[in-house]
Every structure is written in structure tokens, then in C-alpha cells.
Amino acid sequence: MPPKYTTPTDSSNGHIARKRFGQNFLNDNNIIAKIIHAINPVKEDSILEIGPGQAALTAPLLEALQNIHVIEIDRDLIRDLHLTDAYAEHRLIIHEGDALKLNIRQIANEMNPKQPIRIVGNLPYNISTPLLFKFVDCLDRIKDAHFMLQREVVERMAASHNSKSYGRLSVMIQTHFQVEALFTVPPTAFNPPPKVQSQIVRLIPHPASPWPKQPSAHYTELVSKAFSARRKTLRKGLKDLVNEDGFAACGIDSGLRPENIDVASYIALSHHTLK
Q: Disulfide engineering: 105 pairs with which of 79, 138, 142, 199, CB 3.0-4.6 Å?
């Protein structure tokens, strides 16, 4: 067993959560234990944590792992991480910078070029959606992901068609991932408490891409156009991309609205209009 990793900071060390980084530090031991149980780390795992913060998840994860890679933007927190035994032992590898700007694929290849990595993190609410889309761009390097997000975001990610929560995020994430909402985390589990409920979500990439030969950029454009005109029918919202024959060929009623058709229908429309 590797030596236990000591948490470098706690809620009493004087660190002030920075709003610009969307910082809310998890400090509920019961919730932390539930998250670690959901992740179920094993020694051989290659785990990348987004925003370790005060190491609430980093510490228990490292008790099960040989090492862990983390991405952190806050220089004060990075300084504290540098002071830990795990960092001195080269078991804690810190990538300093903004997760939105760093090359996740390159980091994944540095971690383990032979197998996909696992990603975990308490994602800042203000950048959670663009981060999710960034992970879509390196699907082949991801085994699974466990994120804490605003509950409303998780509800949108997991929503079925014909529901109010179903939208662009639902379609794009479900196209690439199996989405499983796990459990809710109350504001009291954080310091400072956020004004919203949080939720843990598990994402597992689908085993096969829907685009064996075709680029997905067209699909992104099609889905974005559809939901940018959410109150319009598909016929009107997608008039520049799909004609009436195209809808008919895919067995889709063009008089429906974007939230009324499922992910498979959007994939079918993308394939048909690229022929």
C-alpha cells in the first residue's frame, strides 16, 4: 500500500474561494466517500482530475492509485499542492493552467499512451458546458468520467426528447456518451455553499462512433441550428440544411419541433444530408 496522502489544505487555512474560478470547495466526508465509491478507483487506473482545489477527492483517490494527474489554475492552491508528500514522491503530477486551454489529448497520452484515461472533477459551473464539449473532442482517449455539476446541467444532459430539459446539450452529450445521473449533492457540502444544487454524473463513451467515415462538424452545425430556433418547426429551423425529401427519407415529420425528435433522428439527418 502506498503511504496515505495528507490533504494539503482545509476550510480553515484562510484560502478565499475565488469567484472568477467558480470555486466551491467540497468538505463533506460522507459525500466524498460516496463519490469515491462511485468512481471505484483501482491501482492501475490513469486518472486525471480537473480542479483538485483543496484535494478533497485527490487525497482519497491517491490512497488507491499509484499516481494521479491534476489540472489546477489557482496559483495559491498549486503552491499548497507542491508542498505535499505525494508531489515530492512524484505521485502527484500537476498541470498548471486553464483546463479549457490545455491539450487534454496530449496530457492523456503523457499519462498512458496505451489505454484510455479516467477523468474526474468538480467542474466550475461557469465553464462546465464548454469543458464537456472539449472532452467530446478526445473521446478515444477516455474510458469514463465522473463529474460534479450543477443539477440543472445534469438534468439537461440526461433528458429524453419531448421534455423541457431536452436541448442541444442533451443531444450532443448523448450522441457520444452514456449518461447516468447518480446522486444529488446539497449546497451544505461545500465551503462556501453555492446557491444551486449539484449532482454527480457518470459518462461512458459509446463503443462505436456514429461517424465511421463522416466528420462530426456538420452534425454539430445541424443540432445547433435546430435548437437556436427552438420554437420553430424543424422544417423552418433547418431549411438551409435539410429539404422536405431529406426529412421524408429519414422518416421524420418536419412539422415537429427540435425537442420532439431523438438523438438517433439527428444522427440520421446528419448522415443523409452529407451524402
A: 138
